[in-house]
Amino acid sequence: MSPSPTPPNASPAPNTIDAAAAATPPEGVAVQPLTPEGRESLIEFPSAFPIKVVGSNEDGFVHAITHIARQFDSTFDASTIELRESGGGKYLGLTITVQATSREQLDDLYRALSTHPMAKWVL
Question: How much is the average pLDDT of 60-79?
């Protein structure tokens, strides 16, 4: 048995969104296109920028993250890494602080960290 067609004057189903209405900004609101040139950064460059990386607590994790950090910041000092082990000891949280020089540098660093097989989360 097929569902009966919806009458033309019927109300939309609950929890549905009118995509056309949702995509239209309120009257008087100017919308700028999201382009690389149009994205303003809230970060002032250069600046010390902390990044948290969580991974399995296994040999080589700290070394791997240090190696990646140095690829994007030649002045990175591994002695500044903060380490936190999870309650059960299964995970290790690292806070690395890099000298951020541009949004592109941070974007590339986040991509490199988040795609590394030993990293579980990058914040």
Answer: 98
